[in-house]
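**Protein record**
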Amino acid sequence: MRLQAMLLLVLLAGAAAAAEESSQRLVYFSTDARVGVDSRGNVVGVTVDPSLSPAIRGVIEGSVKQWRFSVPAKAGQPVGGTTFVHLDACAAPIEGKFRFSVRYRGNGPGHAGKLEVPDYPNTALRRGETGKLKLDIRVLPDGTAQVEEMTLVEGSDHAERPFRESIRTWLARNRFQSEQVDGAPVATKVALPVVFFTDRKDYLGSTAYVDVGNERAMRELAAQQTDCQALLDAGDKLGRQTAQDSPFHLILAN
């Protein structure tokens, strides 16, 4: 689902600087928006990251306000609440302006502040061990999260235990913003991939990182692409943070 608008280059001057002044390089970022939904499924409030420029916030808010969601029922009656939509945003330079595109990635619990990544276990890093895990968590009404299932999809079986321990420690220090139904916070199941990667062969010149929800993978793709449509289409094929049982489901977007 796509939103597009044309913004003057000056409105994205900060983002353009971050793009190293390349006339062809895309500006990519992901963001969440807090969305209030009434009992008819209409969006009645949108709160976007205040660190974004007023122009970008205005485009996102204006577009999301036109969306509709299916809503849950309470005592047999439809009720509203709050969810958080996850968006990929891309700006491409075109004739002295930036074409700004946003792709809806899903909705569910939000992040209470910047989501840190797990630490790379020292034992695994020393051995040059990598891994990709599929993580299913339950975000509780108080914003804490519990692991429901963790599956090693790729990588060394030997490193699975330290990877699991690192993820559990990471979850314990992070907080989420729970969805709400009729004013009361609710639990939501969330799936997301976690990747531990290193090209370490020795102690010199090695790279190591941890990627949650393929956010780093999207930034790397953005550095290789010159077209936002191609970038966002490629993002469709990556595993991202996905709510499994959100009480709100998008049924109409512009």
Notes: DSSP finds six helices and 18 strands in the chain. The longest helix spans residues 160-173. The helical segments are 13-18, 54-64, 122-126, 160-173, 215-224, 228-236.
